[in-house]
Every structure is written in structure tokens, then in C-alpha cells.
């Protein structure tokens, strides 16, 4: 079965950085677009970033442009999210997602979801 396992979350001070990882198994990773979403307390889950199968095309939510970078290593079946200049509004559970088509990521309707990793930003 498909598994997406996130790691790298934690407690970080405002202005700090983290690198989130998502290791995939049970799917032909190189054929899937990947994405990151997040859900803050009391809010709906929202799109953060997407990357196509090759890594050649990326998309970001306006709130994270210039601060977050999505990348992938098809050989390691892993997608990453480098998060910089963190602020309190970035506190959320971050979820990895996979979809056969990137537009499913952009439309927040991926086929597969991970369990999430908590990122907490302290001021």
C-alpha cells in the first residue's frame, strides 16, 4: 500500500528554518506530482507547495513564496520542503501528498496523504 511518511518537524524560534522530508513507498514515485499542505489549529487544511514529477515545475502559495522551497529526489523517493524565515502563522501540521497529476495537488485533491508532521514556531 502507499505510504507517505513525513519527518523533520519540531519547535523552532521565529526567523528560524527547518527542512521537512516525506519518504514515499508503494508507488512509482517518479511518476507522481508531490505537494505539501498545512493545517493550523482551528483552520482548514491549505495548499503550500507543489512539484511536478521531474522537479522542473513548482508552485507555491502566496503566503510562502520566497521563504519555502520544495524539491524532490526521485532516486530516494523523497520530497522535501525547506522552510525559512518562519513566523507564528506558519505553525501547523504539515502534510505531504501525492497525485498522478499536478493539477490535483493544486486543486487540493491528491490521491494520497501522509500523516503529518508538526511545526511549531515560537516568538
Give an overview of the whole structure.
The structure is a single chain. With 123 residues, the protein is mainly beta. Helices cover 4% and strands 50% of the residues. It contains 1 helix and 11 strands; from the N terminus they run E-E-E-E-E-E-E-E-E-H-E-E. Strands 2, 4, 5, 6, 9, 10 and 11 form a 7-stranded mixed β-sheet that branches. The chain has a 4-stranded antiparallel β-sheet with strand order 1-3-8-7, with no helix packed on it. The longest helix has 5 residues, at 102-106. It is globular and about 40 Å long. The mean pLDDT is 97.
Number of helices: 1
Quaternary assembly: single chain
Radius of gyration over C-alpha positions, nearest whole angstrom: 13 Å
Summing up helix and strand content along with how strands pair, one would put the structural category as: mainly beta
Q: What series of H and E elements makes up the topology?
A: EEEEEEEEEHEE
Question: Rough shape?
Answer: globular
Please describe the biggest sheet, giving its number of strands, its sense, and whether it closes into a barrel.
7 strands, mixed
| Beta-strand proportion | over 45%
What ranges have pLDDT less than 50 throughout 5 or more consecutive residues? Answer: none
End-to-end separation: 40 Å
**Overall strand count:** 11
Mean pLDDT: 97
Helix content: under 10%
Short recap of the structure:
The protein is mainly beta.
Amino acid at each position: 500500500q502507499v505510504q507517505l511518511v513525513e519527518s523533520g518537524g519540531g519547535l523552532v524560534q521565529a526567523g528560524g528554518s527547518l527542512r521537512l522530508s516525506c519518504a514515499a513507498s508503494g508507488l512509482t514515485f517518479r511518476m507522481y506530482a508531490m505537494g505539501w499542505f498545512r493545517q493550523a489549529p482551528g483552520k482548514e487544511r491549505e495548499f503550500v507547495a507543489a512539484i511536478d514529477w521531474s522537479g522542473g515545475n513548482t508552485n507555491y502559495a502566496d503566503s510562502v513564496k520566497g521563504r519555502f522551497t520544495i524539491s524532490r529526489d526521485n532516486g530516494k523517493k523523497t520530497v522535501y520542503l525547506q522552510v525559512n524565515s518562519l513566523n507564528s502563522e506558519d505553525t501547523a501540521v504539515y502534510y505531504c501528498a501525492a497525485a498522478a497529476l499536478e493539477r490535483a495537488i493544486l486543486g487540493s485533491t491528491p490521491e494520497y496523504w501522509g500523516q503529518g508532521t508538526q511545526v511549531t514556531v515560537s516568538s
